[in-house]
Amino acid sequence: MIETNDPALWRNFLPWPGAETHKHARGRLGVVSGRAHQTGAARLAARAGLRIGAGVVRIYCPPDAVAVIAPAIEAIMLTPFATADALAREVEEMDAVVVGPAAGLDETTVNNVQALALSGAALVIDADGLSVFKGRSAELFAVLDRDDVLTPHEGEFERLFPGLLRKGRESAAVEAARRAQAIVVLKGAETVIAAPDGRVRVNRTGSPWLATAGTGDVLSGMIGGLIAQRMDSFDAACAAVWIHADAADRFGPGLIAEDLSEVMPQSLKALWLGGEP
Ligand SMILES: NC(=O)C1=CN([C@@H]2O[C@H](COP(=O)(O)OP(=O)(O)OC[C@H]3O[C@@H](n4cnc5c(N)ncnc54)[C@H](OP(=O)(O)O)[C@@H]3O)[C@@H](O)[C@H]2O)[C@@H](O)CC1
Ligand SMILES: Nc1ncnc2c1ncn2[C@@H]1O[C@H](COP(=O)(O)OP(=O)(O)O)[C@@H](O)[C@H]1O
Description:
single chain; 14% strand; ATP-binding; 12 helices; UDP-N-acetylmuramoyl-L-alanine:D-glutamate ligase; 277 residues; Ribokinase-like; NADP; 10 strands; binds adenosine-5'-diphosphate; binds ligand NPW; CARKD; ten-stranded mixed beta sheet; NAD; alpha/beta
């Protein structure tokens, strides 16, 4: 059965800090950055993960990107890595990792995704982390776990699942999750969230203000931030998609991706107080 994504379905599972919570207990999120000229997407994702409540957020970047990222972050931490193996070792302490935004369409990204999949962290894979597997999707699906999340827009979806969209978006997302054996978030004006066990929800509250560069990067950080706080990956994806659209509607005209993390506390507070958001 296809459900409409409604806060009633996941509101009670949102992770709020308790009186004794410390930052590490709240959850640790890693975000993998691209090269020095492609760091904005990772910073958008990392900030969104921090805003949605991950207690510790760390960007992992190629060595040449340190000098660019370090002056552009405060609470977010930074670790350089030189090889995919080194990256996999560094993320051992992380609960969830976002990889793909502005990662680059080359073998480095393939190697990074595959190495990360062997770590214990749940993965949120977006953008280049998906597109780089065009024509070789089996290599991606072979390393995924059921708590990993793929977040394609329709262009990226077509690269991984050629022709599948002809079945209709809901059926396509369900079949994609079955093939990938992971959560699939098929983004768009309506976003479909499907799990390999057959759960599927359609988010009908999409905000057209989201049609601007970088909002998908923010969404990947929000999903990762909730998973890092040990929310079930499917519920985390559903909650993040809804909150993302709610924040966009609250801001309205003039929204750019950077604004989402600044207005998100209003959405979170409404959910925390338990009133109608
Ligand atoms: N601040 C930063 O650092 C940012 C960095 N970013 C990073 O830049 C990199 C490249 O990003 P990108 O936008 O060029 O790649 P991508 O989205 O694959 O578009 C390529 C083609 O795909 C199609 N297509 C696109 N969307 C579609 C849709 N919804 N539905 C259907 N089709 C769609 C469309 O084809 P067309 O329709 O034009 O034929 C389009 O021309 C990537 O790493 C990303 O993470 C961005 O996140 C922005 C902020
Ligand atoms: N017209 C629209 N209505 C509702 N949501 C939209 C619309 N256009 C884009 N979005 C949302 O904005 C985000 C865009 O993500 P994506 O295409 O990956 O962009 P980017 O790669 O620039 O971050 C997705 O969450 C998508 O669902």
